C-alpha cells in the first residue's frame, strides 16, 4: 500500500486499496489481547514451578553443628531433579536431633531467597537398624574439641570381640567435663559411621573391684 499526504486526522492512500475494501483503523484490541494472553501464560508457567516439593530419601550423614544433612533422594518431578546425593541445610523449625544416619525420610525441600535449598519438613518413615553394646573400660585420653574418648574396653561376648583400645565419639548430650583420664566407666555405644557413645557412667570402686576379680577368676580357667 502506498500512502501520500498525512495530517492529524487523515492519511491519503495513493495505491493498494479499492472501493468497498474493509480496513482496520485501530489495533489496540489486538495488542491488549496478545498482552493479556502473554501475562496469563507467564502466570501459568510460574504457578507450575512450586517453591517447595516433598521427596523421599535415605539419610547418609548428619552434620548437626552446621545444621546440614546428606541425603540420597529420589527424583523431584516438579523441579525436574533426578535421583541425587545432596547436602541440605536444615531449617531452624526442624528438629535436627531427630535425624540419624540410615533413616528413611519423606521430607520437604524449599527454595531460599538466596537461591539455595533447605529442609523445612520431615516425616521419618523408618529408623535404621543400629548395633549397640554395653561394656566397661578405662579412659586413656580425652579430646573435648573433637568429642573423642580413647578407651581400653573389655571384651564384647555377643559379638565375639576381644578386649581392645579404641577411639569413641561422644554424643552431644553427654557432658565430657564430668570425666577424667584414668576413670573406670561403663558405657553404651552404637555402631554408626563412627563408634558413638550414647550413655556413660563412672564405675564405683566396688564395681571396678568385682569386675577385676571376675576377670582374674575367668583367666584361671
From TrEMBL:
InterPro entries reported in the protein's UniProt record: CusF_Ec (IPR021647), CusF_sf (IPR042230)
Name this protein carries in UniProt: Uncharacterized protein
Origin species: marine sediment metagenome
